[in-house]
Design goal:
This protein is 34% helix and 22% strand. The chain has 274 residues and is of the alpha+beta class. It has one domain. The chain has helices at 7-20, 34-44, 48-51, 61-72, 90-96, 119-122, 139-149, 162-173, 230-233, 245-258; strands at 22-27, 73-79, 103-107, 126-130, 132-134, 177-179, 187-193, 205-208, 211-217, 220-221, 226-227, 234-239, 265-268. Helix 1 packs parallel to helix 10 (245-258) and helix 2 (34-44) runs antiparallel to helix 4 (61-72). The radius of gyration is 20 Å and the shape is globular. The longest helix has 14 residues, at 7-20. It contains ten helices and 13 strands. A six-stranded antiparallel β-sheet has the order 4-7-2-1-9-8. A three-stranded mixed β-sheet has the order 3-12-13.
Amino acid sequence: MVAGDHPLHIAGKLASILKSNELWFGNLLDLNDTQECDHFLDTVIPEFPRLIEGGAAYSAYLPVVREMVRSHTYVSSWCEYLPDRADGKLSMWGRYADDCAGVGIVADSSPFLPSAIKPANLGFHVFSSRVDYVKKQDVVAHAKDVIDRLSRVHMFPVPVPEALAAAVVVAVKAVCVKHDGWFEEEEIRFLHFGGVPGLSKPEALRHSGGRQFFALGLQSYPDAQFDFSPARILKKVVIGPKGDKAARAAEVRRMLDAHGLRHVEIVISGIPYR
């Protein structure tokens, strides 16, 4: 979401994203979501030996992997946007868009599907994952389900014991588990894990306001068959349901056209603000 209350201000923010051709991912340590990540693992770690055969031998790895995940994970958080919700949803505007007077960017996330990523050619690893919303009493059962259904194919450069793979999978999945009370967000997270073994390409890191970010280049990566250029992934701009919507729509339209993005649709939200 891009927040703001003046049409030129909002269009300018969108233009700055397009001009930089970068999408910045925040470090997990700078987000309050580390608390929920810790809650998930604090509950699961004592139970891990009973979740998978041989788990006792590798349960000690979980605290170590947890610290690696916490310090080396970069996140860009989005909301799921479905065709039957043409103008977004109330929780989207109420939580993220500056009193409903901003705009929402709708992007195609299919290039981020784990099956579409070839990190060896890409030079870094980035992918999407839905956030799971889990009640406190269901945390251990959810971890067991994660272990049972997630394949470890292509996760590791060499074969590793199944229980060790499960420990890594659970620690990584913790980044995308939140309390059931936040379910209305329907969050999708784009994730980058730093320090992927065997990849020598240096990370594109940026610094601002004392914080560190991973910068994903909004471009095509032909060798990896991975295209995240704006012309490929930008589908719509949704105008928030408050303020001078027509003026914001007109200015955003001019900005998009100036960047050769005439195919990008503009939708004015009809969701009533409350």
